[in-house]
Write a structure and sequence with these properties.
heterodimer; B: about 60 residues; mainly alpha; 3 helices; transmembrane helix (chain A); membrane (chain A); transmembrane (chain A)
């Protein structure tokens, strides 16, 4: 049963890749988030369409009675790591499913080297392409309404994923459509706020936040690239070993003898 | 004979659909999980996954 094998292996790949990511996040990425949060001010004007209803806008962890939030420290790290694991499992399921389908259709034969390419592809689709329009954000940054940014993010990931797959796997006459798909989100253009990047009133704080933001873009890029490289290589490995096994292929009528 | 051939062809078509259905289901599963971590607007979900959302370049706040 192909679906079950994809999901089971996605659990494995997701846990391993997110563990690597979590290590980097705890030691390199999160300190920047925490440092940025020290500059957050309660008096900030509420961003438009903010989804925290009536709480102190811009504060990373809402402290109103209604919304639960993990306690800073071990609990917060534990929730972050759990969220990483879920994100890893979800991404791995998508990656393994696409790899499986293309393999079953005879469009590719995945190996470890191609796994690296798949990892780079995943990094471009789910981090690089959205980050070109909306760079990774630190707390306290001014941004367009979150719903608009989320919609653009999803459009970008979907369009670039389809575009890359078309560029690599579609017949030559369709490749131009791949370029069109990849360009589409940037023609639509990402939502950006009018006004300054940071709402903090103190110029010194803005200098510090700008510096933190630069560091954040670098550290998240490196962390996500490593995460995706582990995802790609490991997915390629489990695909040949545990997903598309002779038994599964036989069940799908895909083995060589069936075609004889 | 012809019925055998056609039933074999039918089986093959059916198999193709079933593998595509399964991989599509896995993609939907993955997308739902990623959506829950990165996009769910619920405050509690946002607060639990807050640092992950920032680190993975999901829009936050």
């Amino acid at each position: 049963m192909l679906f079950r094998r994809i999901i089971l292996n996605a659990l494995l790949v997701g846990i391993v890749a997110s563990f690597v990511f979590s290590l980097l996040q705890v030691y390199v990425v999160n300190p920047i988030i925490f440092a940025s949060e020290t500059y957050e001010v309660a008096e900030e004007p509420a961003p438009v369409a903010d989804h925290h209803h009536g709480e102190e806008a811009g504060h990373a962890h809402s402290h109103d009675e209604e919304a639960w939030a993990p306690e800073d420290g071990i609990e917060r790290t534990a929730y972050t790591m759990s969220a990483n694991i879920f994100a890893g499992i979800g991404y791995a399921a998508i990656l393994l499913a696409v790899m499986s389908q293309l393999s079953l259709q005879g469009l590719t034969r995945v190996n470890l080297l191609k796994g690296i390419a798949w990892g780079i592809g995943g990094f471009i689709v789910f981090f690089g392409a959205p980050a070109i329009g909306i760079p990774p954000e630190i707390p306290g940054i001014e941004a367009a309404p979150v719903e608009h940014r989320q919609a653009w993010w999803m459009l970008t990931a979907a369009a670039v994923a389809i575009g890359l797959l078309v560029l690599v796997y579609a017949p030559l006459k369709f490749k131009a459509l791949g370029v069109v798909a990849i360009s589409l989100p940037y023609l639509v253009s990402a939502p950006h706020p009018d006004g300054p990047a940071f709402s903090h009133p103190d110029p010194a704080a803005i200098v510090a936040l700008t510096d933190l933001h630069q560091q954040f873009i670098v550290t998240t890029s490196v962390s996500n690239l490593l995460f995706w490289l582990v995802m790609g290589v490991m997915s390629a490995w489990v695909l040949n070993r545990w997903v598309l096994t002779p038994n599964v292929l036989k069940g799908l009528g895909q083995d060589e003898t069936a075609n004889a | 004979m012809t019925t055998q051939v056609s039933s074999a062809q039918h089986a093959k078509t059916h198999v193709k659909v079933s593998s595509l259905a399964q991989t599509a289901a896995a993609i939907i599963f993955g997308a739902v999980v990623v959506f829950a971590v990165g996009f769910l607007p619920m405050d509690a979900a946002h607060n639990a996954a807050h640092d992950t959302r920032h680190a993975m370049a999901f829009p936050c706040h």
